[in-house]
Amino acid sequence: QVQLVESGGGLVQPGGSLRLSCAASGRAISSYTMGWFRQAPGKEREFVAYISRSGSMTYYADSVKGRFTISRDNAQNTVYLQMNSLKPEDTAVYLCYLDLQTRDRRWGQGTQVTVSS
User: Fold this and answer.
1) Do residues 91 and 113 make contact, with C-beta atoms less than 8 angstroms apart?
2) 20 to 30 A Cα–Cα from 34, which one of 11, 81, 83, 102?
3) β-strand 68-73 against 78-83: which pairing, if any?
4) How far apart are CA 20 and CA 8, in angstroms?
5) Beta-carbon contacts of residue 57 (< 8 Å; ≥ 6 apart)
6) How far is the C-alpha of 49 from the C-alpha of 59, rounded, in Å?
């Protein structure tokens, strides 16, 4: 059984930065692709970023490209999301995921990010 725990969310002013962490337990993440989604109130969950098993490949939603960076430390069993130049529209619950296999995606509980002055 794998568990994912996100941390690092909070309140930040527009233009600020946050670094989210997703710590995994129960499995070594090096064998799995991972990423981040987000969900704002009243909206559907949307893709944010993806990272391959080795970290050599990453993909981003157009809305965050150039501002967010996903990375992973397989030795620490942790995935990160560095968020810079934050905008009010980035406000959402950010959820980490891990793909155990096709059609078997595991989720963390999420961490709240609020961008407001």
Assistant:
1) yes
2) 11
3) antiparallel
4) 5
5) 50, 51
6) 6
Q: Are the C-beta atoms of 55 and 71 separated by less than 8 Å?
A: yes
Q: Which residues contact 6 (CB under 8 A, 6 or more apart)?
A: 20, 21, 22, 94, 95, 96, 108, 109, 110, 111
What is the chain's pLDDT, residue by residue, as a tens digit (117 residues)? 899 999 999 999 999 999 999 999 998 999 999 999 999 999 999 999 999 999 999 999 999 999 999 999 999 999 999 999 999 999 999 999 999 987 899 999 999 999 999
Q: Which residue has the tokens 């963390």?
A: 108
**CA atoms of 91 and 11, how far apart (whole Å):** 9
Q: Are 37 and 49 in contact (CB under 8 A)?
A: no
Hey, is 35 helix, strand or coil?
strand
